[in-house]
């Protein structure tokens, strides 16, 4: 039993490490994304592991892509997990705009934190196809010293 638990823990750790492999240039991250909210990726990557890849019963991966376009940061998180059926995807999307989260409290909290930090100057989109995986796209202004106030003045 102890060996089985250790093996399962190792598999999850390996999946988490694979999830952290990404297209992020360390210099870009150090210079640009230092103002990105803490724990922005964690709930999304955790959902991708536990509700996507783990449920698919096949090898999967998670790709995190950060791009800067002008003064905006574009983040895309792609997983090759099981994905969501149309009905479930609609429930999750609607849950972002209501207090009823439909069980996806991590995605809801991430959305609300982006809204609190960036006002309405951000976008958050979820795309998914059952059997293929899920994509989450976020765009928001790159905040530097003094720009936080500008977001709320607009």
TrEMBL record:
Keywords, sorted A to Z: ATP-binding, Nucleotide-binding
Keyword ATP-binding: yes
SUPFAM superfamilies named in the record: ATPase domain of HSP90 chaperone/DNA topoisomerase II/histidine kinase
Domain of life: Bacteria
GO molecular function: ATP binding
Positions of the Histidine kinase/HSP90-like ATPase domain: 36-144
Pfam family, one: HATPase_c
Keyword Nucleotide-binding: yes
SMART domains on file: HATPase_c
InterPro entries: Bact_2-comp_sensor_kinase (IPR050640), HATPase_C_sf (IPR036890), HATPase_dom (IPR003594)
PANTHER family xrefs: SENSOR HISTIDINE KINASE YPDA (PTHR34220)
Protein name: ATP-binding protein
């Amino acid at each position: 039993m102890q060996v089985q638990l250790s093996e399962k823990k190792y598999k999850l750790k390996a999946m988490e490490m694979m999830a952290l492999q990404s297209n992020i240039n360390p210099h870009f991250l150090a210079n640009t994304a230092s103002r990105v909210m803490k724990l922005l990726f964690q709930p999304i990557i955790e959902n991708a592991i536990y509700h996507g890849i783990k449920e698919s019963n096949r090898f999967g991966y998670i790709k995190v892509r950060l791009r800067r376009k002008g003064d905006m940061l574009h983040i895309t998180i792609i997983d090759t997990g099981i994905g969501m059926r149309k009905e479930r995807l609609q429930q999750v999307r609607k849950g972002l705009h209501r207090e009823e989260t439909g069980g996806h409290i991590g995605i809801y909290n991430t959305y609300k934190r982006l809204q609190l930090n960036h006002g309405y100057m951000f976008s958050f989109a979820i795309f998914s196809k059952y059997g293929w995986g899920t994509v989450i796209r976020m765009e928001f202004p790159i905040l530097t010293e003094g720009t936080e106030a500008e977001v709320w003045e607009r």
